[in-house]
Amino acid sequence: MSKLFPHLFTPGKIGSLTLKNRIMKAPQSSGMSNMDGTVSERLVRYYRQQAAGGAGMIIVEYAYVDDIGAKSAHCHLGISNNEHIPGLAWLAENIREQGAVPAIQIEHCGRQKFLGTQPICAPSAIPWPKLWDQYGVQAVPHVLTIEEIQDIVHAFGDAALRAKQAGFELVEIHGAHGYLLTNFFSPTTNHRTDLYGGSLENRMRIYVEIVRDVRKKVGPDFPVTIRLSGTDYEPDGFPIEDTIELAKVLEKEGIDAFHISGGDHHTMIHQVSPMAIDVCHNVWAAEAIKKVVHVPVIASGSITLPEYAEEIIASGKGDFVGLGRPLWADPEWPLKAMEDRPEDIRPCIRCNEGCLERTFFNFKAITCAVNPTISREGELDLKPAAKPRKIAVVGGGPAGMEAARVCKLRGHEVTLFEEKELGGLLHEASVPEFKSDIRPLCKYLITQIEKLGIPVEHKKASAADLAGYDAVICATGSRPILPGVPGIDKPGVMDALEVLNGARKPEGRIAVIGGGLVGTETALHLAEQGMHTTLVEMLPKIMNGVAATDQLAYSERIAKADMEVCTGTRLVSIGDGEITVSDRTGTHTIPADSVIIAIGLKAQDSLYGELCAQGKEAYLVGDAVHPGKIFDAFHTAYRVAWKI
Predict the structure, then answer these.
(1) Which run of H or E residues covers position 315?
(2) Would strands 601-603 and 478-480 be described as parallel, antiparallel, or unpaired?
(3) What parts of the chain have a pLDDT lower than 50?
(4) Is the dihedral of CA 333, 338, 343, 344 positive or negative?
(5) Is 62 one of the annotated active-site residues of the chain?
(6) What does pLDDT average to over the chain?
(7) Active-site residue identified among 47, 62, 179, 638
(8) How far is CA 374 from CA 12, 35, 252, in A?
């Protein structure tokens, strides 16, 4: 172990005070490089902040190794030619200056090319299904010749040498997540019959050749690690037993540590697990690899809280912990853990809303639902207000608490008005067990209000109550919309929020009207409690506007639950023990003793309108602007509080 990380590994007590020596930034593409793969000033600012947060090592996002088919995504970092070295050296030095060890991951995307542009290269002509849906035959990969495979092997070695020349202190080979190396390793994507296909020995051949080429070019003492998926979770893919054999072989070839993850882009819920999937999702694979190798193992994947990291290290499931999304949610995660301040960590809720849905999948730089400043380092940093003012924030949901927190940090005198308990709809949102990641977020926000000493007035604020304030931020939320159908006032009718907060308890046969996020989650929550549930949605499919990873995870759960889904179906009326609906076949009834309405929410902005009419300086944030998600609550609140 001392060969690899002598300045990181400190024997002794495992716990918060030693986490710095064990926490690493796991690489994930940011979309912040220049178009030609060179390092941008924006990328340097981003990694400088990540490094300042206390992680022992920063493994920079994967960098493409050649200019032919390796580039995966928009504004993807490159290490494919010597002109990339000056910028990479600048990046490595900035990381080192912040006290972290600079490392970099090198990669070839194989068939998983987000850009969808040719050439797409792979061992066999089997396209990534997502690309096939988008581009058709253009997504079918070019089948690599043996000569081309050898060129890629040498490209990895050359890239590793550039990393060393640039001043990085470790290079990691990306051999996971459905990229090129796993395209060779998985029977799902490798149908070759030559020396690179068929047997396990042949399917791991490119790994061995790349490790040998890298080791030859960087020398025997330069640390080289590799990231592997324990399994790709494909039904006909590679199991953990194959990965164990691969790890044994690569250890003999001189790999210094294994960074273990899982899944591929086709099985995204196992690679970038949403909150409906268990935390620490791939740690089991790290533990399995650790049992058979004699070099360090880095565990990664949905390790959202320090208590999880500490358990992994203390129990010997991994020697180090790699954090990806948690460091986007809070770059100071390791520092706060070391200082025994876990309550101050802004937790990742694994919503994948900012890091995947609204940004990476749409060719933008990454952001985060709960951290609006990520990728905007140096632009949206908090600064003291030019003139401290007396600010009222009306509404104690996520938007209101975030606005109050930011205003207070900027030096304003803040009072928060909330009729009920702090948390708003976070309480309802976190009721299903598959949404439990939201509970630490709610606790974090309430804790910050308390620690900052922000007074809370538990009352419904009127315009008269707000007369003495310089400005008012209205985080007054939203209320459920009810359809104007016959029977809507029957006693068995309730809205989804009433069910989730425990105000109403459905009984018997249940119909949930509305298959959006709230309706789907409510129906699934009840079905998993053993209640027969029918979900009715007027559109052709449910979960419109729901994150892709949630759609996959929920679909799997729905298939196992006592739940029926009716799409293209409109509610006509509500009767006694039944509802009447219409679809393309006509009008018919569905048994329903309880009818739960989840067709949407309407902004509550009347107070804002009243204040504006009086000439009061007022702002809208969160659902009061437009009913949305946690992402919208945090981002609207932060932007208003940042400039007020």
Answers:
(1) none
(2) antiparallel
(3) 1-3, 6-19
(4) negative
(5) no
(6) 95
(7) 179
(8) 34, 20, 40
Amino acid letter, 82? N
Q: How many CA atoms lie within 13 A of 401 on its CB side?
A: 25
Task: Look at strands 618-620 and 471-474 and give their pairing.
Answer: parallel
The tens digit of pLDDT for each residue in 268-280 reads: 999 999 999 999 9
- CB atoms under 10 Å from CB of 71, counted, come to 23
Those residues with Cβ within 8 angstroms of residue 467's Cβ, 6 or more apart along the chain or in another chain: none
Whole-model pTM: value is: 0.94
CA gap 125, 138 in Å, rounded: 11
Q: Which two tokens stand for residue 298?
A: 């880095």
Give the C-alpha separation, 374 to 325, whole Å.
Answer: 11
Which residues have C-beta within 8 Å of that of residue 160, sequence separation ≥ 6?
A: 106, 171, 173, 214, 217, 218, 224
> What is the rounded distance in angstroms from the CA atom of residue 50 to the CA atom of residue 301?
18
The whole-angstrom separation of Cα 575 and Cα 392 is: 46
CA distance 540 to 569: 8
Is residue 437 within 8 A of residue 347, CB to CB? The reply is: yes
What is the maximum alpha-carbon separation in the chain?
80
Q: CA angle, 400 as apex, 397 and 401 as ends, to 5°?
A: 80
pLDDT of 26: 84
Can you tell me the distance from the alpha carbon of 594 to that of 490, in angstroms, rounded to the nearest whole number?
10
Residue 364 CA: distances (Å) to CA of 46, 74, 324, 354, 632: 15, 8, 18, 10, 17
Rg of the chain over all Cα atoms, to the nearest angstrom = 26
How many whole angstroms separate alpha carbon 296 and alpha carbon 314? 14
d(CA 375, CA 94): 16
Separation between Cα atoms, residue 605 and residue 603, nearest integer Å: 6
